[in-house]
Amino acid sequence: MTVPSRRAELQIEVVRKSIHLLIGFVPMVATLIGVPPTLLLLGAGIILYTSAEYLRYTGTRVPLISRITELASRDRDKNHFVLGPVTLGLGAMLALMLYPEPAASIAIYALAFGDGMASLFGKAFGRIKLPLTGGKSLEGSLGCFLAVFIPTYLLVEPQVSLAIVIAAFAAFIEALPTRDFDNIVMPTVTGAFALLVL
């Protein structure tokens, strides 16, 4: 891979994962206004995005949303309906519906921070490819581990061993080759594991 193409790929990933990081506000919103209104907001966001993306896909640009979608699109997303924001919202909704606290927050933070940092670390520093992962890297998995460990530790302190186990599990799940469904698999499986060990 040439340096310019790697840089362009990293820039796209920064835009994509900035959107990912926004989902990290969901636990705070749920605490402030309650879970049902938060689920309604997420559902409305999914419907709004789906409508805008359908229009973009069929040739009608929607100001701001279409531009952000284009900036965040990977090569494999070109000329396709970009599903990532839909699965991102669904993943957060499932975490809120399926798990009590703190498992729901851990699941959402794994989605927002773990998946996001794995991708950024992997694109920026990834050299050691992990077998059977579809090209994911050890450096990406370490980024995921750190990004899940920190908020998990803050939620379960002083139980550092539990935070380590949950973060390691989340890094393992993130490394699986789930492609476009990682936004659903990551929070639901990590949340179930967190609920089990907590």
UniProtKB/TrEMBL annotation:
Sorted keywords for this record are:
Membrane, Nucleotidyltransferase, Transferase, Transmembrane, Transmembrane helix
Which chain regions cross the lipid bilayer? 20-49, 81-100, 106-125
Is-annotated flag, keyword Nucleotidyltransferase? yes
Alphabetized GO MF terms: ATP-dependent diacylglycerol kinase activity; nucleotidyltransferase activity
Domain of life of the native organism: Bacteria
The keyword Membrane belongs to this UniProt entry's keyword annotation: yes
PANTHER family given in the database record: CTP-DEPENDENT DIACYLGLYCEROL KINASE 1
Q: Please give the name of this protein.
A: Phosphatidate cytidylyltransferase
